[in-house]
Amino acid sequence: MGKRKRTDAPINGAKTHGLTILKKPKTTESLPAKIKSSSPLTIQVVTGSYDRILHGLTATISGDDQVEFADTFLFNAHSSAIRCIALSPPSAPEPGKLQKVMLASGSSDERINVYNISAHPPSFKNQDALSSAMPRKTLENPKNRELGTLLHHSSTITKLSFPTKSKLISASEDSTIAVTRTRDWSLLSTIKVPVPKPLGRPSGDTAALGATPAGVNDFAVHPSMKLMISVSRGERSMRLWNLMTAKKAGVLNFNRDMLQEVGEGKHSLGEGRKVVWGSTEDGDEFCVGFDRDALVLGMDSTPKCRVMPDPRKKIHELCYVTIDGASDSSLLAVSTEDGKIMFFSTKSQDLTPGKSSTEGKEKTALPVAKLIAELGGKEAGVSGRIKDFSIVKAPGKDEAGCLFIAAGSSDGKLRVFKLAIAELKEAKATKTVGKLLGTYETQNRITCVEAFAMIPRPEGVEDSEDEMEDTSKDDESEDEKDDEDDEDDDED
Questions:
Q1: Global model pTM greater than 0.90
Q2: Torsion angle of alpha carbons 480, 481, 487, 490, nearest 10°?
Q3: Rounded-to-integer distance, Cα 37 and Cα 66, Å
Q4: At 317, phi and psi to the nearest 5?
Q5: Which sign does the torsion angle of CA 413, 420, 392, 69 carry?
Q6: 213 or 119: whose pLDDT is higher?
Q7: How far apart are CA 147 and CA 167, in angstroms?
Q8: What is the C-alpha to C-alpha distance for residues 447 and 91, in angstroms, rounded to an integer?
Q9: CA angle at 150 for the pair 215 and 75, rounded to the nearest 5°
Q10: 3-class SS at 227?
Q11: CB atoms within 10 A of CB 462
């Protein structure tokens, strides 16, 4: 049987005929190249801001926990505030070649900008005198460059994600979710999210006069790459999508009892603002974040517990973090308005009975997740909110028990914390954990943060224009192989 030709998806809102197949990312083993074992850990941090600036910097952490910051790129990326950014997995390692990472940024100007950034620490060689004379340490890298702009959406970009190296998924306030192929940046398919009815419209929304609040707030892809959950504005529900067919698989409405449990009253919006799958391979639970609380649900969409203790604080970001190699050793991390990152255990044995919020009615309240530890806060000098954060697990045996957290605040400060996993395992009592390694003043109001541990540079390989051209050609051939595998999956 011959291969079926894949057809590109039509414009937003039209029916999609092609399939949206997302493969699980391939695990690539590092090549036996000579790596400098004594080199310190370097973390690449990327921040977006209200000031339209896409700022890249490295945090080099030595063995004695001394951190040194250096600017790597500074792009005036958009004409409006940057709402979200995403980083792809690094390209496959090859002898004599440098690896790269794709960076995507979404803004209120309806555009998605795509960049290539180096996966290796910047070289101290070939740095001109102008860089050394700057007031801040600057290490430029010729591999950090812009690739182009995507115009798939007609409204503010709200979420970006690279589930694999070959696919980019984007959501927007135009009530669409787009799947883009990274090899040629063609639009594969568009998922149209229904616009909510204006009946029963909650007060306090920001929709135009006579309009209905609409748009995708967030989405999360299941670890199997076959399912996706989305939450939208103006909807007291979440939607389950089948990525194999790009069609709706189900809808779960947030009933009155569920909303009361998370502090969403009659006059509240009641919409999900964040959604994230569990970090285990099975992804047997997921969490939906609201304004001041979060709800953890199982695969059968049955509420398992709520998260925030009383008094509840405004939530800005949440994610699951794996603290051990075991499949069930993960915690839920939540950043709050008072400058803290709180770690919760959602295991059944760690849940505590909740207090019912309804008097005079025999209703069983949802259990509450156990608060394991807190990081940051006024004790660490963090007085403002933590708008976003990214957790990086240090590679190597020496740092296997440590997590490094890059946290960005709206006051323009980026803080790097070090957290020992052993501190999180000691769940006897709630305590403040982690160590603040350093603070960097970006001079921009941060809205989003992404970070990854940079791969040590192989010996004898340096940045050059010829090498960069060869690498781009090799990456194109690699992407073509991935797309051929995708077509084979479609045929099956």
A1: no
A2: -130
A3: 18
A4: -155, 150
A5: positive
A6: 119
A7: 15
A8: 27
A9: 100
A10: strand
A11: 11
